[in-house]
Amino acid sequence: MKISVIGCGYLGAVHAASMAELGHEVVGIDVDAAKIEMLSAGRAPFYEPGLPEILTSARESGRLTFSTKMADAAGAVVHFIAVGTPQKKGEYAADLTYVNGAVDALIPFLAEGDLVVGKSTVPVGTAAALAARVETVGASLAWNPEFLREGFAVQDTISPDRLVYGVAAGEPGERARALLDEIYAKALSEDTPLVVTDYATAELVKVAANAFLATKISFINAMAEIAEVSGADVTQLADAIGHDARIGRRFLNAGVGFGGGCLPKDIRAFSARAEELGRGESVAFLKEVDAINLRRRQRVVDLVIETLCGQPFQKKVAVLGLAFKPDSDDVRDSPALDVAVQLHGRGADVLAYDPEAMANSARLHPQLNFADSVEVALQDADVVVVVTEWKEFRALDPARVAELTRGTVVVDGRNCLDAVAWREAGWTYKGMGRP
Predict the structure, then answer these.
(1) Which band of pLDDT confidence, cut at 50, 70 and 90, is reported for residue 244?
(2) Stretch 349-359: mean pLDDT
């Protein structure tokens, strides 16, 4: 099937390449000429495992092209909208400028019977408004939320854990489902669960899922706050309650908190939309979820300052990690980068290292100093802070690290290190909610 993907950022680029890998003829469209030039050359504009390989294979097959011209979407039967919905400046609400702009620019090139498919995360009610606009030219709309995990995005697109179609009632919805079934034939043949529903439910699925995950993370971080004043061990606590099948162990890892381009802005936008609908009290707890999350960043900074006896000025701090999670170069709302910036602002001599995210970090915060390797970052450090759980950092030999550093204090902002091994090697180990 011939497909267009409007928006070639993280979501759109992965979706376009994955659809071409599945055998569809795909054109990816974006207004950013530099990004399109990179993608056309087979180079991913961001770090995502597996993406360069499918970009190369899809381009070589002739099934994948990229363009800055919306007119090149003409002739496609299905058009995916994959543009960003950032948080409005100074507000909690989602900014729908890019979504509305993409649809308005696409409408002149739609043919009767075409299907526009929303992938972007939007406030409930958005799809119904967009459907009315595309219907004026005889096209129809579906909402098909994505559930990508950065670091696993290619896998999650080609073999998703579920599919959700939000479609209109009657014949337009039946046609939309048939087209989407054809696009996702491989996943459906593998018995991937499918939920076919209305627009509003499909929109809520994504924000509700993110709200739940954020709540689970902030819950265990709230328990870490209690553990820190009571002497309990939050890791063992998480293990114990995680054995309950109703709770589960995943996302019960206390630490510096969540970040990235989805969870923080999505829970804020959800709160804002609920207030617009007159039901702000229903998700009022999300504001505390957000507050707990932000407090954990400050807690890491406070632990570092405490280990330096309240005198961080010109003390060398090795910050290991800048991306919001491993296997990504994404520093949007990154707790790790925030910790580095806060410590620098307190006068510490911060030297940061991340395997993939330093270029993005330097663009946002050129005032920071960056190391070429983890060994350089550790050299003569008074304190070591781990804030992104890259495998490279989890595998560090504490005895070898001690040969490089000046001090022997490690602050584990992700609870990803072996506390016993580090203490046996002579380190003062400080974790999050761990004695």
Answers:
(1) very high
(2) 98
Amino acid at 203: E
Mean pLDDT of 245-252: 96
Phi, psi of 360 (to 5 degrees): -65, -40
CA atoms within 13 A on the CB side of 367: 13
Average pLDDT over residues 186-199: 97
* 152-167 core/surface letters (b: 16 or more CB in 10 A; e: else): ebbebbbebeebbbbb
Q: Which of 8, 262, 309, 416 is catalytic?
A: 262
CA dihedral 388, 394, 397, 398 (to 10 degrees): 60
Q: Count CB atoms within 10 A of the CB of residue 9.
A: 17
Which tokens is 35 given?
A: 């990004």
Burial environment of residue 42 by CB neighbours within 10 A (0 to 12, 13 to 18, 19 or more): middle
Print burial letters for 64-96: b (CB count within 10 Å at least 16), e (below 16). Answer: bbbbeebebbbebbbbbbbbbbebbeeebbbbb
pLDDT value for 19: 97
Pairing of strands 383-386, 349-353: unpaired
309 is catalytic: no
pLDDT at 74: 97
pLDDT of residue 234: 97
> Distance (Å, rounded) from C-alpha 414 to C-alpha 217?
12
pLDDT, position 109: 98
The encoded tokens of residue 326 equal 């491993």
